[in-house]
Amino acid sequence: MQGRLTQTKRSRQPPNAAAARDAAVLMEVVFALALLSLAGAVMSGGLSASFRAVERGRLVAQAADMAVTKMSEIETGQLQAANDGPNSYADENLQDWTWQIVAAPLDDQPLQDVTMQEVQVVISHQPSRTLHRLSQVMPVKEPLP
User: Fold this and answer.
1) Taking the model in full, what pTM does it have?
2) I want to staple 100 with a disulfide (CB 3.0 to 4.6 A). Which of 7, 122, 125, 130 is the partner?
3) Beta strand 116-125 with 84-88: parallel, antiparallel or unpaired?
4) In DSSP terms, which residues pair with 119 in a beta bridge?
5) Alpha helices of the chain — where are they, by DSSP H?
6) Dihedral sign (CA 122, 123, 127, 129)
7) For residues 35-48, b (16+ Cβ closer than 10 Å) or e, as one string?
């Protein structure tokens, strides 16, 4: 008889204990999945932002290179240092880019014999709204005949 009592005591666990343990495991799994999803969203957002920053940096560097090229064309006499543009590039790889030259005489003339002007090259990329300006003070050159 005593053996029977022991068996009855062992099987007398609360009926909801196993269900409570299963519910706790399920809650842990759901919580872990929620944290994993949140971490994935944060990482995805970070990667997206870094890709946009890299693309923006590439566009700014390209615009700076193009501005230096146009300023060099002005300095070598291939382009006149006079108001011009906005103009499109002939190269079809640069179809979204435009350039403009803005020239203005300086109010303060540091040299008596030479008239100086500020020449500004403006490069813009319409789709990304990138704009780069490069300014330089240079003497006014007489146009070639």
Assistant:
1) 0.66
2) 122
3) unpaired
4) 103, 136
5) 2-10, 17-75
6) negative
7) eeeeeeeeeeeeee
Q: Which residue's structure tokens are 């079809």?
A: 92
Ramachandran bin of 129, using left for φ above 0, alpha for ψ from -120 to 50, beta for the remaining angles? left
Q: What is the DSSP letter of 142?
A: P
Looking at residue 85, what is its pLDDT?
Answer: 83
Give dist(CA 59, CA 31) in Å, integer.
Answer: 42
- State pLDDT tens for residues 42-94: 999 999 999 999 999 999 999 999 999 999 999 888 888 888 889 999 888 88
Order across the sheet with 97-105: list the strands.
Answer: 84-88, 97-105, 116-125, 130-139
Is-contact 116 138, C-beta < 8 A?
yes
Beta strands 130-139 and 84-88, pairing class: unpaired
Are 30 and 102 spatial neighbours (Cβ–Cβ below 8 Å)?
no
Contact of 124 with 62, CB cutoff 8 Å:
no
State the pLDDT at residue 145. 44
